[in-house]
Design brief:
By secondary structure, the protein is an all-alpha fold. The protein is 67% helix and 0% strand.
Length: 187
């Protein structure tokens, strides 16, 4: 007896089916309806559609800003707290700074690893929040602890940029121990 597909695997198969060049127009419409309306994927289908809105370069399905926000709300309703991070991305893209700030804060409150990473980036850039290097570095550490290894990249880049070679070496060693080899050599 075969083991049943997980929700994530099932969603991946649906997306692959939609991307198949031999998918008929009717099948594509049916898949679109499933992605927009289904509540069986724990909100992952809704966040996939938000991703299509954010990328805009090539999308199987046209997604408007309003639909993207609606899809975020549906994902949240289905218990997917990652939706807060996606709200942040949509609001930031469209220049609604206050809602972007609030959504990113909520994302971090729910310990979203990408939320931590982007909070660090925002604190370093000073665009969305007042610039705060110390807090930014702590959010990169939180991202790493939550499993977002790209936090190592951010820490390494920051230390190298600021000439802090010993700290950069420490990050290289930590990342290597965490099975995340980073490029570059620090003398």
């Amino acid at each position: 007896m075969e083991k049943p597909l997980t929700r994530k695997e099932l969603l991946s198969h649906l997306i692959a089916q939609a991307e198949d060049p031999f998918c008929s127009t009717q099948e594509l419409q049916d898949l679109r309806n499933i992605l927009f309306q289904s509540d069986t994927f724990s909100g992952m289908n809704h966040l996939y559609l938000v991703t299509l809105y954010l990328k805009k370069d090539f999308s199987l399905f046209s997604v408007t800003k309003e639909q993207a926000l609606e899809q975020c709300a549906l994902a949240l309703k289905e218990g997917n707290k990652r939706a807060y991070f996606y709200f942040y991305l949509v609001y930031k893209k469209d220049g609604d700074w206050q809602k972007a700030r609030n959504s990113l804060r909520l994302s971090c409150d729910f310990k979203d690893r990408e939320g931590y990473l982007w909070m660090g980036k925002e604190l370093l850039s000073g665009e969305l929040f007042p610039k705060d290097e110390r807090k930014a570095l702590s959010f990169f550490e939180k991202a790493i602890q939550a499993g977002e290894k790209k936090g190592y990249d951010e820490l390494l880049f920051h230390y190298l940029k600021n000439g802090e070679k010993e700290k950069a070496k420490e990050i290289l060693v930590r990342a290597e121990k965490d099975s995340y080899p980073l490029p570059g050599v620090v003398e």
